[in-house]
Write a structure and sequence with these properties.
27% strand, 454 residues, nine-stranded antiparallel β-sheet, Lipocalin, globular
């Protein structure tokens, strides 16, 4: 893309950062194995007014799982294990959901049959002082006693249904240590970071604290709605503990696009990477409509007719998203030091733009969001007898009457000139329609016609 087209992307990012009160965002776009675009916006340290840079360190959260997956696959490549091996062969933990053993591939695909058990959520919230939960797992081995008895919580037999399970990727980290006879992070450095020259990618607090360019973590203060600094939740490991920067992650994406190779270096066998990028189980959340999970990667076949491979990450104070399209040799990573606007939306906006598509009109989730903002405002009935206020929250609408009654509208069909939502009123499912005209918007809500000028 030309400089003016990058400016459109930058304007989109700044608009969302402002709307969602985000301290900073960093982004890198890779094309044909090279860095096509990199930038950072906002402050890595709001209080001191220090700007973020393309080299600023952020937590990448569950993008860590892609590193863990590749390290497991390296053990397969080197003949140390099979993905059909049972976990209990390597880790002393009896997990038998509904009487069936958990295999390694079940953990890689989040299909062990165990629902999310919440260790990471409790650990992060407790560490940051954000709730009543307290889960002092100081090291990965502490998750083993936490999982004692977890098989009674199973809702499905292994291999049949997707339940995102952070604990499963902690177990995979312990598995890597067992079969390689070295610490998990040593395997990541040896097989991924060092070959790629990712010299500023960390997991230990000591290494992060020595780096002069680290984004301070923030949460949104519920009272003021503004970012409030907090601490980094060190202690998460092979399921979400990696911290990196846009420049290092660009090298990682270039390797994935290059079928496991970066320059003259082979990081992972191309066939094994292809296996990792193959959908094994459907996921319940679908941004594009057909997503499934492979070995540590989310896969869609319908991004403008192309295969998209991706993963996101969220540790409350850092959010991230990585995605690439191998056939276009194109990829992106987006990093932030807070929650707020989804990093996936920014990343897919960037990819669509590079492909020459109009992101807002062609990506359904962005179209819904755009139209929802258009629908905001005060709607009045005949002779102002009744009125309702409409406010957008993402692609959901909140409708409030004069008397304070609130309705939540969920999108059903959204176009630029028409939108249909539904809600429940006193137990009845009610359709709600908006007709978007040049100079006004007409709202049909149950028995009323209401209008707002544009």
């Amino acid at each position: 893309m030309s400089s003016p087209e990058w400016r459109i992307l930058e304007a989109f990012i700044l608009e969302k950062m402002s709307e969602y009160k985000m301290p900073s965002v960093a982004i890198a776009v890779v094309k044909d194995g090279e860095l096509a675009y990199v930038n950072a916006f906002g402050f890595r340290d709001v209080e001191r007014g220090v700007p973020a840079t393309p080299g600023t360190i952020y937590g990448i959260g569950s993008i860590t799982k892609t590193f863990t997956s590749l390290c497991v696959l390296k053990q397969v490549e080197e003949g140390r294990l099979s993905l059909d091996d049972e976990l209990e062969k390597y880790v002393h933990l009896r997990l038998g959901p509904l009487g069936e053993p958990v295999k390694i591939w079940h953990l890689l695909t989040h299909s062990s049959g165990l629902p999310a058990l919440g260790y990471a959520e409790a650990f992060i919230e407790g560490t940051l002082g954000l709730g009543e939960a307290w889960m002092p797992v100081a090291k990965p081995q502490d998750v083993l006693p936490f999982l004692s008895g977890a098989e009674s919580w199973a809702v499905e037999r292994p291999g049949r249904r997707f339940f995102y399970l952070n604990e499963g990727y902690v177990l995979l980290g312990l598995l890597i240590e067992k079969v390689s006879q070295r610490p998990y992070w040593d395997c990541v450095k040896r097989h991924i970071l060092e070959p790629l020259g990712m010299s500023r990618t960390y997991i230990y607090a000591g290494d992060v604290e020595k780096d002069p360019d680290v984004a301070k973590p923030y949460v949104l203060d519920p009272q003021t709605g503004k970012p409030r600094s907090t601490r980094i939740p060190f202690g998460i490991y092979s399921d979400g503990g990696v911290m990196s920067n846009a420049l290092d992650m660009a090298k990682y994406i270039a390797m994935l696009i290059g079928r496991g190779r970066y320059g003259d270096v082979e990081v992972i066998d191309a066939k094994l990477l292809e296996e990792a990028e193959t959908k094994r189980v459907e996921v319940p959340w679908k941004l594009l409509g057909d997503e499934g999970y492979g070995y540590g990667f989310v896969v869609s076949e319908s991004f403008f007719g192309r295969k998209l491979v991706a993963h996101g990450g969220n540790v409350l104070v850092y959010t991230a998203y990585m995605a690439y399209i191998r056939q276009e040799r194109l990829g992106v990573v987006v990093l932030a030091n807070s929650m707020g606007y989804p990093m996936s939306y920014i990343a897919l906006y960037a990819l669509a733009s590079v492909l020459g598509e109009d992101p807002v009109r062609k990506l359904p989730f962005l179209l819904r969001e755009h139209v929802a903002k258009t629908l905001e405002g005060l709607y009045r009935g005949y002779r102002n007898t009744v009125s309702y206020t409409v406010k957008a929250k993402g692609d959901v609408l909140i409708v409030r009457s004069r008397l304070g009654e609130e309705l939540y509208l969920l999108p059903e069909e959204v176009r630029e000139d028409y939108a249909k939502f539904y809600t429940y009123m006193r137990g009845y499912r009610i359709p709600v329609e908006f007709y978007i005209e040049k100079d006004r918007v007409k709202l049909i809500l149950e028995r009323y016609l209401l209008i707002k000028p544009r």
